[in-house]
Amino acid sequence: MSDQHPFQNVTFPSSGREAHGYLAVPAGGTGPGVIVIQEWWGLVDHIKDIADRLASQGFVALAPDLYGGRVAHDGEEAAQMMQELPEEEGARLLAGAVDYLLSRPEVTSSTVGAIGFCMGGGFVLQLAAQQGERVSAAVPFYGVGQGVPNDFSGIRAAVQGHYGEQDTSYPVEDARKQAEQIRRESGAEVEFFYYDAPHAFANDSNPQGNYRPEAADLAWSRAVAFLKAKVR
């Protein structure tokens, strides 16, 4: 069997309309399912690379396109596109992505994991709160934006968060409060890790130059081990 995994652009029904995404499948052909949720830039090559990296670790990874094919080219445009995405619409599209991923014959798990970055880190928590038992592992990386829910009581997933101590978009004090709120309201297993790094430290293509390879590698190894342990 080749160590090259197959991937494809896919369409799936969501809230009565057609949604799009990027699906990466392990070389072995099957594996547990993980939803990959984009940053505010859109479904860019970096997010597809995250799905590819997960496939190389044995997961069937689906990255839904929350912007309908649009991508941002600078921070101002990205902020505008994020603000133009209604939280309810994003949540509905992600619910359809869970349905679709669990219906795929390649997926061996009865639940999915969810991993997301920046805006997607907020939507990871939204999706876990919305889907309850269907999401068994939620991994937000520096989650910000309108995707973060106000109420975490619906979360049944174990939660592993990754946040930068130099993050000016989401101060570390807020992240610590959020971890405690999730724990208190959901009763879920919650562990947040904090890094000597700024916002978006795991994005090696970030145009704002925030990538920190040591922190990124450590966070990634923790996230992959967590997903392997929790998604069944």
Automatic annotation (TrEMBL):
Keywords: Hydrolase. Residues 21-229 form the Dienelactone hydrolase domain. The keyword Hydrolase applies. It holds the Pfam family DLH. One of its GO terms (molecular function) is hydrolase activity. This is Dienelactone hydrolase family protein.
